[in-house]
Every structure is written in C-alpha cells, then in structure tokens.
Design goal:
about 45% helix; Aspartate Aminotransferase, domain 1; globular; Ser_HO-MeTrfase; alpha/beta; binds pyridoxal-5'-phosphate; seven-stranded mixed β-sheet; 16 helices; EC 2.1.2.1; 2 domains; about 425 residues; Aspartate Aminotransferase, domain 2; four-stranded antiparallel β-sheet
Length: about 425
C-alpha cells in the first residue's frame, strides 16, 4: 500500500475484528462462488472500492463546492467538482447534483423540489414494474402525495401510453414520472414529454435501472426529453451504492436546495469521490462495449429461458433485464427463487403484470446480466445459464442436497471458475 494513502487495510481489520473481516471475505466468496443475476446489482471496480474505503469518509462538507458550512473542504471540493463535471459531460446535462445518498434519497429530493404535500404525481404502478418510491402506500411518496398510477397494456405487456395520456388529462398531475424497476423495454420518452407538455406537468425520469446503458450509449437517453432525471449509481452503471440527479438549468436551484438542506445533511464525500471515479470509467470505450454486451446477453438469456417454457413478458427485452412468467411451467416465483438459490444461482421472484399471485409468492422471476457481463461472459454462456435456470426451476428443489441442486451447482462452479468475479491476482 502507498504510504501516502490510509484506508482499505484488510490485514489490520482482520487482526482487530475477525468476525466482521470474515463477513467481508465470506461475501466475496459468495459473489465468486455463484451466478449473480439480480438485475439491480453489479461488481464495481477495485478503484471505486478504494475511493469508498478512504479518509474522505471523515469529512463534513454540508453545502456545495466553494459554498460549505465547514472549513477544510479544499480537497473534497475537488472531488465533488470532478464528479459534477464528469456526470454532466457523460449525460450531456446542464446540471448534476451528486450528493443523494441513494436512489430513494434522490427521488425524495425530486418530490421536495417540485411537489407540496397532497399534490398529484402520475407514475407507473409497482405491480406493473414501477418502484416503491413512485407513490406506493407504504412509502413517504404515497403517504404524503396523491399518486395516480398507469400500467401496462394487457396484450403487449408494455407501457400503455394511451392510458398515460388519458390519466394525465383526467388528473392534471404536477409531475409525470417514467421509469421503474422491472421494465424490460425501451421507454418512449418523446411520447411522455408530449403528454407532460399537454397537461403542463414536469417530466421526471427515474432512470435508476437503465442509466448505465445510457452512459455507455447502448440505449437512448432520457436527458434531452426530461426536466429531471434521478438515478442510482450502483446498478448497470457499476459505481458505488449511491444516487445522483441531473436536470435542466431551469431546475438547478430547486434540485440543489431539495437535496441539501431539505432532505439530507452532510454529503458522503468518500462516495462522491467514488462516483467521480465511476463516471470516468463510464466514459471509456471499454465501458461502452460492456453496455452493448449487457444488452446482447440479456436478449439471449430471455430468449433461452423462453425456449425452456419460461416465457419472457413483452416477448423479450431491449435492456439489461427480463421478466419471466412461470405459469407455463407451473412453478411460483418464490419456489423458483429458492430452487435457484439452492443451485448457486441468485435471482429474485417478481410479480408479472396482472399477476394472479400475491406479491410475496409471485408468478415470475426477474433476471439481469450486469454482473455476469462484468465477469466477461457472452452469448454462449447465456445459453448455458438459461438451461441451468430452467433445470433448477423445473426439476430442482429448495434443498441444496437435492441431486438436481448439486448437479446444477457443479455446472455453475465450472462457469464461474472460467469467468471469475473479482479474479484473484495471478500469484495468489
Ligand atoms: C433501485 C431503484 C430505486 C432505489 O434505489 P436505492 O438506492 O435502493 O434507494 C429507485 N427507483 C428505481 C426505479 C429503482 O430501480
């Protein structure tokens, strides 16, 4: 370790706290030992992790670069300014706020910037692919705001834009929100913009899931259409666990005031430094190629599962994730998740549109390719993985000792040994 850097000293932690250090190594073993298909996860780089494990964590820096409430901010100001500039240039945005602690915190700030309690937002419903923070009753967003929800069309299983327009005209929302956590298809931002303009609404895109694909140029950007775009930095984007917001010049002051002091206190400067590192990574040709491969892999995985009777909703995907209907193989989402888990495959159960099951049972699973693509896997491996998932889901069992669990797990082990997550140094 460089003697001018202090942080990320694993040996010292191991000596002081063997219990927590064994959690850290245990988690790394878990990541390395199985297939991670959770669509919202990724493996950030050692450089990002190094920034996270730095002394910037100590610094109080309430305010913004050059306008802080504390002294001693000269170095962290540089980190935040770099993060802001890199974020703006990555997305071609007028303004960026890189302080939100997470996707939910970023969303809270957007509500704070544009809505008073009781005002109306029109957003995608959670069971059709939205997000908890988009006005569900269990979230601040549904408790404090009047949320109206649109969904997907029964036949296409894609966003019902006519319904969006009808509801917008009927309810005249202050804010129209697009985005969600289980939307496999591209979103028609131009159509949303036109609907927002028709009713005088702010157009907000929650791009948490797909912003990484936008950063790499693999799918179209919402930035030219939206008033404001909130996102997480830890999903396809592959940065630290955190959030950010970009917006037009017109909304700069409202967004900055809503993040601090309205919703948050001191920013996490170590995470902001890590976001700066991540935005630099995202501007490279390697990252652009990565995002194209993420989408190519997701298409093959979705199709492969479909060939095994595990139908992709909407018929496939344009992004990093697909949603699958298990009713054709007579397995519930909760059972599929448990069977895959026993076979070394981590994925999540998910409600499908018009799901006859309760959300905690669900008729579907959601799979995503950010992690396996970071490991270097391609289309050939996706076909293999589709077969392994189908074998575990259809013939397997939640018992890890069941012969099918063992059989699939052995093949998962071969695959992850050929494409390791966080490869060990050659000498080790
Ligand atoms: C993941 C996600 C969020 C929340 O992000 P957190 O960092 O978990 O708070 C918000 N909106 C959407 C659409 C998401 O997918």
């Amino acid at each position: 370790m460089s003697d001018t850097f202090y942080g990320s000293d694993f040996e010292a932690l191991e000596a002081f706290d063997p219990e927590i250090s064994s959690v850290l190594t245990g988690e790394l073993d878990r990541l390395r030992g199985g297939l991670q298909l959770i669509a919202s996860e990724n493996f950030s780089s050692p450089e990002v992790l190094t920034a996270l494990g730095s002394t910037l964590s100590n610094k109080y820096a309430e305010g913004y670069p050059g306008r802080r409430y504390y002294g001693g901010c000269s170095e962290v100001d540089k980190a935040e300014s770099l993060a802001i500039e890199r974020c703006k240039s990555l997305f071609g945005a007028d303004h960026a706020n890189v302080q939100p602690h997470s996707g939910a915190s970023a969303n809270q700030a957007v509500y704070g910037a544009f809505l008073k309690p009781g005002e109306t937002i029109l957003a995608m419903s959670l069971p059709h692919g939205g997000h908890l923070t988009h006005g569900t009753k269990v979230s601040f967003s549904g408790k404090w705001f009047d949320a109206v929800h649109y969904g997907v069309d029964k036949d296409s299983e894609d966003i019902d834009y006519d319904e969006v327009e009808r509801l917008a005209k009927e309810h005249r929302p202050k804010v129209l929100l697009a985005g969600g956590s289980a939307i496999p298809r591209l979103i028609d931002f131009a159509r949303f913009r036109a609907i927002a303009d028709e009713v005088g609404a702010i157009f907000w895109v929650d791009a948490a899931h797909f912003i990484g694909l936008v950063a790499g140029g693999a799918i179209p950007s919402p930035v030219p259409y939206a008033d404001v775009v909130s996102f997480t930095t830890h999903k396809v984007l592959r940065g630290p666990r955190s959030g950010a917001i970009v917006c037009t010049e017109q909304h700069r002051a409202a967004i900055d005031k809503a993040v601090f002091p309205m919703m948050q206190g001191g920013p996490q400067m170590h995470t902001i430094a890590a976001k700066a590192v991540n935005f630099k990574e995202c501007a490279t040709p390697e990252y652009a190629a990565y995002t194209r491969q993420v989408v190519a892999n997701a298409k093959v995985l979705a199709q492969g599962l479909g060939e095994h009777g595990i139908r992709p909703t909407t018929g496939g995907t344009d992004t990093h994730l697909s949603l699958h209907d298990l009713q054709g193989v007579l397995v519930t989402g909760v059972d599929a998740e448990a069977r895959c888990d026993a076979a070394g495959i981590t994925l999540n159960k998910n409600a499908i549109p018009f799901d006859p099951q309760k959300p905690n049972i669900a008729s579907g699973i959601r799979v995503g390719t950010p992690c396996v693509t970071t490991q270097g896997m391609g289309e050939e491996q996706m076909r293999t993985i589709a077969g392994l998932i189908a074998r575990a889901v259809v013939d397997g069992d939640a018992d890890p000792e069941h012969p099918v669990s063992r059989e699939v797990r052995a093949q998962v082990t071969d695959l992850v040994e050929a494409f390791p997550a966080y490869p060990r140094p050659a000498s080790a």
